[in-house]
Design brief:
The complex is a heterodimer of chains A (426) and B (503). Chain A has 14 helices and 21 strands. By secondary structure, chain A is of the alpha/beta class. Chain A has three domains: 66 residues, no CATH class; 94 residues, Urease, subunit C, domain 1 (Roll); 248 residues, TIM Barrel (Alpha-Beta Barrel), CATH 3.20.20. In chain A, the strands form four sheets. Chain A has a six-stranded mixed sheet with strand order 3-2-7-18-19-20, with no helix packed on it. In chain A, strands 10-13-14-15-16-17 form a six-stranded mixed sheet. In chain A, a hairpin with a 7-residue loop joins strand 11 and strand 12. In chain A, helix 6 packs parallel to helix 8. The longest helix of chain A has 18 residues. In chain B, helix 4 runs parallel beside helix 9 and helix 4 packs across helix 10. Chain B has 503 residues and is an alpha/beta fold. Chain B folds into three domains: 122 residues, Roll (Urease, subunit C, domain 1); 239 residues, Metal-dependent hydrolases (TIM Barrel, Alpha-Beta Barrel); 135 residues, no CATH class. In chain B, the strands form two sheets. In chain B, strands 1, 2, 3, 4, 5, 14, 15 and 16 form an eight-stranded mixed sheet that branches. Chain B has an eight-stranded mixed sheet with strand order 6-7-8-9-10-11-12-13, with helices on both faces. The longest helix of chain B has 43 residues. The chains are: A alpha/beta (426), B alpha/beta (503).
């Protein structure tokens, strides 16, 4: 099944996103994705006759079986510690089969299957940036209308962008490409991998819907020009969606089929958003940092809160936000804000949050498990448990400890990066 | 039993006596903790004792004395107060050019209690604040001790370094050429200024000698006497000036670099042009010491003329102190080409350089190492987006490269993000993640940082020194660690709020 799927995905990926790459972005270097990805013209000539097609398919199948051997036959990753689903670091080894985590075991017969061993490492789920803009920096800020009900950020995704590899080497394996804060309704986000066997790719198109009551969403002389106007427009949009029969991403959010992430930079924005949430019973996640000390008690009905990004210059009030929401028993994710923020910002933010009172376990979950849940991939991403995708990062220690380095990165069970200094065997 | 009762009596007596005495005088021992001394030594399961504001014992074998208060420090870490060697705390402004005599100490806001407590809460007790300029000389940087209550004692040092910025804020056309020339000219001007002053002082002495000779011959009138007295008074005032300035009198002016000499020639040509109206104007005295001297000699044939004093320039006086090696010269410079130019000028004028920012330093690591110039590396760039000049060369690999080349690299918060002083320990942890040697990392924000700032009584835990330290719940570089207490001079200046209280 997976073998049949792979070529289609690869070819589809190569063409679909290339058209989206129409921007003249100097940052973007069109790096070759893999040696095996052929230009479209050559591919055509290969498949020109039925016999050729058959032979090509056979070769392709053989090649894939050989190259993805480790992934399909199983691989054992051993290290000093494993980040467990609760956020604590335990002992064990992770066994991978067919790109998924097969089991986490205490004792392993390491000779039975191929293994990668990291003496000092800690195996952690790949970090997830819930507010990423990687490869689409500035490309999701549509300004034509404040309500972009049907837009999907997938069209802005640029698999060739150099930021992907930078983020991946810092341990970020997935991100939600979310629309910007500058529309009341920005459309739907997509969930992406920063790398894979075939390079960065979109892994699901049904990401969260983005809403915003941030000042960025206000216009100069067109509605909305204020928070009052914004809330009013949103209310009308919710009511219209309830009464109509359209089926945009936004409508599915209103029908509680997917979550919405709403940008609420000030405490007053949070209170206004929570009023909407109560009135329409919406599955809402708030992004809020600044006034957490004041409004943490008011977000109990929300699905969760996204805090950050936080850098070393974060004032105490911001740095204490995550701990405050944790105390209010709301699920907290810490945002990375890539690429506007540095590739390390997820871990930096988590470390700062811990310094200011967040528990270590919650902070580890805030950059792995919680954003995966917010993105609609609960149990699939951001967690090391049987059945989850094998997106793993081996750090040289606790991922929260900023002294730790990335030793290796696995995406879908395949090692896509290995640090030059990694002290592993084979 | 008898012994015990006598001891009790003694205790009672001491307590009564102690009611008047300073509460601090009682010895305090923190036992069973990990003690990081700041000079590279780490004792596990050790104790620190202090009394009367001084550290009285340190190490694994400290005995709790009679009547001393013992605090269980199991699992805790004790470190010197952390030192941020390049901070923006309390001094947010960047001045316009050419204010070498301005002082960051005057700009420091000791009443910014929020920021000060935020830093103390993360174990930072001392910061260096620069006086930054857009370009060129900014002023004198200050070393400040963080105390929660505003006080004048906060400033430990108001002349910690002369601050320069070279190409730190964007690029102008042919900017590098101009700014390097301007930087060199500053120091050349300072030298010329000194020569002019020295010439003047020499001539003044000659003049006085001649007056004296004349007086001895009996030719002097009563009027001259009074003049002489007045001059002698002037002279006495000048003697109060630092001695080293006089020592250098009449030294031949070194001009090793032809370009430099050219610059001076041009400058002099300009100054003579402007001074044409008044032959012995102030500018002439300042820049054209030779001509001034000649004039003086020529006229001294028959009639004794008092030499004219060149105008005082407080800015030049500051630069002269740097030329004499009294204070270091800190240059905020980012681009490799600029760094090389700064190093060259530094060598030419024998300056004690410290490079700040220096995000391009790893490209010229060898020359920096050779010149033995310490580097305070800017915080890593906070974005993945492309950086234009001047931070174009910023790289996480810089730390490793510089260290491998043998450059002394310091980690600081950097003045661009004022709030980041508080997270100095985490910054150092991140620096270790990017290649800073863990063994030296803590020293670079304690003992070696104090050496860099030339502040004697900070950065190290040592018997006999002031009892300044921080008690952490765990390794300070670990994010789960919390500061429990900050002690300065044996007194707790900051204490962690009780569990459950809001920050």
């Amino acid at each position: 099944m997976s073998l049949m799927h792979r070529p289609t995905r690869r070819l589809g990926c190569g063409c679909q996103w290339r058209s989206a790459h129409g921007t003249r972005d100097v940052l973007c270097q069109r790096a070759p994705r893999t040696e095996r990805t052929l230009p479209a013209r050559e591919r055509q000539s290969l498949f020109s006759t039925p016999w050729h097609r058959l032979a090509a398919c056979a070769i392709l199948v053989l090649a894939l079986t050989a190259s993805s051997g480790l992934a399909s036959d199983g691989l054992l990753i051993q290290a000093r510690g494993v980040l467990m689903p609760g956020g604590e670091i335990g002992e064990g080894a992770v066994e991978i089969a067919a790109g998924k985590i097969k089991q986490v075991s205490q004792t392993v017969d390491s000779d039975a299957i191929p293994h990668h061993r990291y003496e000092t490492g800690v195996i952690c789920p790949g970090l997830i940036d819930i507010t990423g803009q990687l490869g689409a920096d500035g490309q999701t800020a549509e300004r034509s209308a404040p309500l972009q009900l049907g837009i999907s950020t997938g069209a802005a995704f640029d698999a060739y962008h150099r930021h992907m590899a930078l983020a991946m080497r810092a341990g970020v394996t997935a991100f939600v490409l979310l629309p910007n804060d500058n529309n009341l309704v920005g459309g739907a986000g997509v969930v992406c991998h920063t790398g894979s066997e075939n390079g960065p790719e979109v892994i699901s198109t049904d990401g969260p819907v983005k809403l915003s009551v941030a000042p960025d969403a206000f216009r100069l002389n067109v509605a909305p020009t204020s928070r009052a106007g914004a809330i009013d427009m949103l209310r009308k949009a919710f009511e219209k969606s309830r009464s109509g029969d359209s089926n945009t991403a936004f409508d599915r959010f209103v029908r509680k089929e997917r979550v919405g992430i709403i940008a609420t930079p000030s405490g007053a924005d949070v209170l206004a958003a929570m009023q909407l949430q109560r009135r329409f019973d919406l599955p809402l996640i708030l992004t809020h940092t600044a006034d957490a000390l004041d409004v943490a008690g008011a977000v109990a009905g929300a699905r969760g809160v996204i805090v950050g990004p936080l850098a070393f210059g974060a004032p105490r009030r911001y740095a204490a936000a995550a701990a405050q929401f944790e105390k209010a028993e709301v699920p907290v994710a810490i945002a990375g804000g890539l690429p506007a923020w540095s590739a390390d910002s997820l871990r930096t933010g988590a470390a700062i949050a811990v310094r200011h009172g967040m528990s270590a376990a919650a902070a580890r979950r805030a950059i792995t498990e919680v954003p995966a849940t917010f993105a609609g991939h609960e149990g699939q991403l951001g967690v090391i448990q049987p059945g989850a995708r094998a997106d793993l990062v081996v750090f040289s220690g606790d991922p929260l400890d900023l002294r730790s380095r990335v030793l290796a990165v696995y995406i879908d069970g395949r090692r896509v990066y290995r640090a030059p200094t990694a002290d592993d065997q084979p | 039993m008898k012994k015990k009762s006598s001891r009790l009596a003694l205790v009672a007596g001491l307590l009564l006596a102690g009611a008047h005495a300073n509460a601090q005088m009682r010895s305090v021992v923190i036992s069973d903790a990990t003690v990081v001394t700041g000079n590279g030594r780490v004792y596990s399961k050790a104790s620190v004792s202090y009394q009367g504001g001084k550290i009285t014992g340190l190490g694994p074998r400290v005995r709790a004395g009679f009547l001393s208060k013992t605090i269980d420090g199991a699992g805790k870490f004790i470190t010197p107060g952390l030192i941020d060697v390049w901070s923006g705390m309390g001094v947010p402004a960047i001045v316009s050019e050419g204010q070498a005599s301005g002082q960051a100490a005057d700009a420091y806001d000791a009443f910014d209690r929020d920021a000060i407590e935020a830093a103390l809460a993360q174990g930072v007790t001392t910061v260096y604040v620069p006086a930054r300029a857009i370009e060129g000389a900014g002023g004198l940087g200050a070393v400040v001790r963080l105390v929660p209550t505003a006080s004048a004692d906060a400033v430990i040092k108001d002349d910690a370094a002369v601050c320069f910025s070279i190409g730190a804020r964007g690029e102008r056309a042919l900017g590098r050429l101009a700014r390097t020339a301007a930087f060199r000219k500053r120091w050349q001007d300072a030298k010329d200024y000194r020569t002019a002053r020295e010439d003047y002082e020499f001539e003044l002495e000659e003049y006085e000698k001649k007056l004296k000779e004349r007086a001895e011959k009996g030719e002097s009138s009563s009027k001259d006497e009074s003049v002489k007295k007045k001059d002698a008074g002037d002279k006495k005032k000048k003697d109060d000036k630092p001695k080293n300035r006089r020592r250098r009198r009449r030294r031949p002016r070194p001009r090793p670099r032809p370009q430099a000499a050219d610059a001076v020639m041009i400058d002099r040509a300009v100054s003579t042009m402007t001074a044409e109206n008044g032959e012995n104007g102030e500018r002439d005295g300042e820049n054209g010491a030779d001509e001034n001297g000649k004039n003086g000699e020529k006229k001294s044939g028959d009639e004794i003329k008092k030499p004219e004093e060149p105008a005082r320039d407080p800015e030049m006086d500051v630069l002269l102190r740097a030329l004499d090696g009294e204070i270091p010269v800190r240059v905020e410079v980012y681009q490799p080409a600029d760094i090389l130019n700064v190093l060259e000028v530094g060598e030419e004028f024998n300056l004690r350089l410290i490079l700040e920012g220096a995000t391009g330093a790893h490209r010229v690591a060898e020359p920096i190492a050779k010149a033995e110039v310490p580097v305070i590396l800017d915080a890593p760039v906070g974005t993945m987006r492309h950086q234009g000049d001047p931070r174009r060369h910023a790289s996480n690999a810089a730390l490793q490269t510089l260290q491998d080349a043998g450059v002394r690299v310091f980690i600081a918060s950097g003045p661009d993000a004022a709030g980041s002083t508080a997270h100095l320990a985490l910054r150092v942890a991140a620096a270790i993640g990017h290649g800073l040697a863990p063994k030296t990392a803590v020293q670079r924000i304690t003992g070696q940082a104090a050496e860099l700032l030339e502040i004697a009584d900070a950065g190290q835990l040592r018997v006999g020194r002031s009892a300044d330290f921080v008690v952490w719940s765990a390794d300070p570089l670990d994010p789960t660690s919390r500061v429990e207490s900050v002690v300065v001079g044996g007194e707790e200046v900051w204490k962690a709020p009780k569990q459950g209280a809001d920050e």
